[in-house]
Amino acid sequence: MAKTTKKKTTTKKTQRAVKKAVKKAAKKNPGLVIAAVVIVAAVVVAGAILINKGILPNPFVPNEEPSSSAIDSSLPIASNSSNSPSSHSHVDIAGVKYDDFQVHFLELGNWYTGDSVFIKAGDTDILIDAGSRYNSAEAISSYVDQYCTDGKLEYVIATHAHEDHIAGFSGGASKNGIFYKYDIGTIIEFAKCGKEGAPLTSGVYTNYCEARDYAVSKGAKCITALEASKSEEYKTISIGENMTMTTLYQRYYEDWASTENNYSVCSLFTYKEHNFLFTGDLEKAGETSLAEKNELPQCELYKAGHHGSKTSSNEVLLEKIKPEVVCCCACAGSDEYTKTDINQFPTQEFVDRIKDYTDNVFVTTLSTDNENKKYTSMNGTILFSSNGKDYAVACSNNNTILKDTEWFKAHRTW
Fold it and tell me: Could you tell me what percent of the chain has a pLDDT over 90?
């Protein structure tokens, strides 16, 4: 991060000018100045109350100097952190100060729904999935490059073998995907794909395998979710000070499923006492197994299963994790999978279930023209950041929660 001595000097000059102007105004009309001060104070206090109660998203503050806490001590939800300042710099979302644990839900550069989540845990770089199409590889890498300054992803998780989750790992014929561009430490991938007696043969999967094998030839270690979930070495991995990544077991690492979605790798990240859950596109049968086979904790962050579909984020899972913030990687209102409005991501059934736990729901992208596959940002790239005590959410486009968006008011009910 560039030095900010000039910015600080400018700020001091501005403060002196403001004080001078206030004094001058006070001489002419003291009653007006007092009223203005009272109004400003009331607004600040009201904002603090709304933030503390979770009615407003937690704010970020400008990163003028490297800091161990994204939440400035002057803000009402703030707490001072004893962690040492992080050594890496951050340059993406304007006006944001970052913590040592960050989760970035990425927009993928096209109209299609897909997942790609970048996690910065101290100095450890992790990528979960690389959808949605081959051309998303460029969008993903251009974003990740701002944070992964050494060119190495310590861990990559490929949740399941659907195009909207793995296409960007290869980049297709251009071979410009994640596995070709970065030095990869460890790959944790889906343990099964296809159906019994019917192996998966899609071009996207074939290209994925070729790219994965290339990464392995360059030194990457590749293990399946089944191996990781049963391994003392890989089940729970330390990824930073007071930070762990756990591969959770679920039955479809071993059993055949009727859908690729239920093969999804499930990962739980923990920073101090706080938990963050990622389940890929796991559907109800898989969520039931996940809930039965693991002692799932309450989770501050949950990536909406299967893009906010009607088949995922079921009560069997939600009643255990009781999420506070839900981030949905989807192109809201896209008819990519169905023409039925209430079943387009994020679906009405998803909304009906999640509303009992939180209204802090964020969505990456919005379809503006299904016929011509045009899109814009809804929240944009979503950043969830935690200092181990507090957390905050900031988005590249806006921080409007789902139920307050114009799209929601026109297409969904709360």
Answer: 76
